[in-house]
Design brief:
Blueprint lengths: L8 E5 L4 E6 L4 H5 L6 E5 L2 E2 L3 H9 L6 E8 L2 E8 L5
Antiparallel strand pairs: 1-2, 2-3, 3-4, 3-5, 5-6
Length: 88
Amino acid sequence: MWVPAIPGSNGKFSTQRLAIGNITKGSPADAAGLKLGDTIISVSNQKTSNPWRVQALLWQSPLGSTVPIGIMRDQKREILNVKLGELP
C-alpha cells in the first residue's frame, strides 16, 4: 500500500507495523533518508503504526512543510524529517 503524502515511498502494512517496502530514487522519501525495511512508529511526534492515521497526520500538514517521522532501523529509533510534496 502506498503512503501518498510521502512521494516516492510505499509500504507493506500489518496490524503490528508499518514497514517501508520501496523508495523511489530522488523522491522526498529518499531525500529524507527513508530506507527499505524502515518501520514507521510516529508522525509529527504522535505514535502510530496505522497507515490511515499516518496518512491523516501527513495530510494535516501543508505541502512544502517538514514533518518529523519516527522510525525503527536496525532496532534503533531515529527521527527523519520529510518535506511533503505533491504526488507525481
